[in-house]
C-alpha cells in the first residue's frame, strides 16, 4: 500500500536547510572565494554538488523507503549457548555523510552577503557539531556491531552480569574487521556506498559463538 504525501514540519525544515546551505555555498562562498568559472571554483562546486545530491538521496530514501515487516510465519530462535543464531531485533544504521565547511570572517561589501554568512554560520556550526558527534557514535556502534537499542540493552545486561558475578559479551561482536564487513559488506570497495544485499534475510546474523565453533572445528 502506498502512502500519500503529507506535510511534515521537521522534514520541510531539513529540506529548506539543505537547499539554503547548497545555494549559499555554491553561489556565494565558492563564487566569491574562487569564482565559479575558475578551475578551483568549478571543481569545488562539482564536489559539493555531488555531496549534496548524495545527502538528498539518502534523506529521501530514509523517508520514503518501507522499513519492511517481520514475516507472519517467522518463529525466532531461542537464545542459548548451543545455538549460534539468535533472534535479532535491530534497527538500520543510517550513516550519513558529513560535510564540514569552515567559515572565515572577511571584508563584506554588501549587507546581503553578511546576512548569508551569519545565517550559514548559525546553521553550519551546530549542524557540524551534531553530525560529528553522530558520526563518531555510529563508528563506535559499527566497530562493536551494535545498534542503538542493542547498546542500551547491553548496558543493562552488563550491569546484571556484574551483579550476578558473570561476564557479559555482546554476542554479535565478531571483531572490528568482521563487524565492518557485517555492516558495510564484504567488498571493501562498496563501503563508500554500502547496500544491504549481503545480510541475507535480515532476520538472523552471525554471532561470536558461531566463530568460536568454526575455529574449534578447524583444529
From TrEMBL:
Coiled-coil intervals: none
Membrane-crossing residue ranges in chain numbering: 6-30, 42-64, 116-143
Key word Transmembrane helix present: yes
UniProt keyword list: Membrane, Transmembrane, Transmembrane helix
Signal peptide: none
InterPro entries given in the database record: PFA4/ZDH16/20/ERF2-like (IPR039859)
Keyword Lipid metabolism in record: no
MF term (GO), any: palmitoyltransferase activity
Name assigned to this protein: Protein S-acyltransferase
